Amino acid sequence: MNRNISEQGAVTYIMVTESQLKQVAEDSARSVLEKFGIATEEVKEKLQVEDKAEYRPLVYWMNKLNVNRSTLWRWEKDGLVTPKRVGKKLFFRQQDFDQMFAQKAAE
Description:
Blueprint: H1 2-7, H2 18-35, H3 40-47, E1 55-57, H4 58-65, H5 69-77, E2 84-86, E3 89-93, H6 94-106
């Protein structure tokens, strides 16, 4: 019966927990990497951000500092802050903002 429903183009829903979904994603990624002969540990090392606890995502800083993306882009362009890029996402360190504000206060 389920086969007939699927063949007719009906929508099927499944329920999984967050941990189950995460496990499926990890298993799938591991399988793809293994097919290309890439070690999973090698990929994990490349994805890790140094001083991970110090970095926060772009949106966090936009909300905390009450600024928009273009302000952070300008600060980056002026060399006042240096983001860490992980894929398309940007992460900034508290230390960079502390230094920038201290420098501005000293001027």
